[in-house]
Amino acid sequence: MGLINALPHILLSLNLFFTAIHAATFDVVNQCTYTVWAAASPGGGRRLYSGQTWIFDVAPGTAGARIWGRTNCNFDGNGCETGDCNKALECQGFGSPPNTLAEFALNQFNNLDFLDISLVDGFNIPIDFSPTTGGCRGIRCAADINGQCPELLRAPGGCNNLCAVFKTVEYCCFNVSSCRPTDSLFFKNRCPDAYSYPLDDQTSIFTCPSGTNYKVTFCP
């Protein structure tokens, strides 16, 4: 009788357990008029012609993750013009600037996912990062940053952040709690929801309930 009486509680516990470890599904969609070589860490990479979608799952508890797009890739040794990851289609690490980043950490503090769009590594492709479940808000950076990029920050296929150009404490905020946005306001003014410099947390990090699924759209 004890086991029978306890069975509903056991089943509930198992249900909560499997719900808690449910992987998040990411749909990565290329709405650009050109080919994008999508990259994810973790996840690898895929070539997406215009209109194509890449779908993959990411385990709960994953932190420090990111999705980005690469442009003008040729894997015969030259790699990609922007966002390259060791000249390989399947990324094992992060991409090289400039690249627009969709960053996330799943099932963290208070059973929340944390997400952001970061321009700390510069900008190459407009991007939208939105939940497909969960009832929380999405974020977007779709401004013409490449077209308006200051001459000092221009790079082939994209627009660099000042940290990538100068690599100094002032712009990269290496262990400097009083770091200020300075000229990164060029990015912030055009994409208010995006990180423009490393300590831009208050207006740039968003949350969704753990178990939410997401869509990352290039050229929304």
UniProtKB/TrEMBL annotation:
It comes from the Eukaryota. Keywords: Signal. Residues 1-23 form the signal peptide. SUPFAM superfamilies: Osmotin, thaumatin-like protein (SSF49870). Coiled coil: none annotated. The keyword Signal applies. Transmembrane segments: none annotated. Belongs to the thaumatin family. This is Thaumatin-like protein. It comes from Hevea brasiliensis (Para rubber tree). The lineage of its organism: Eukaryota, Viridiplantae, Streptophyta, Embryophyta, Tracheophyta.
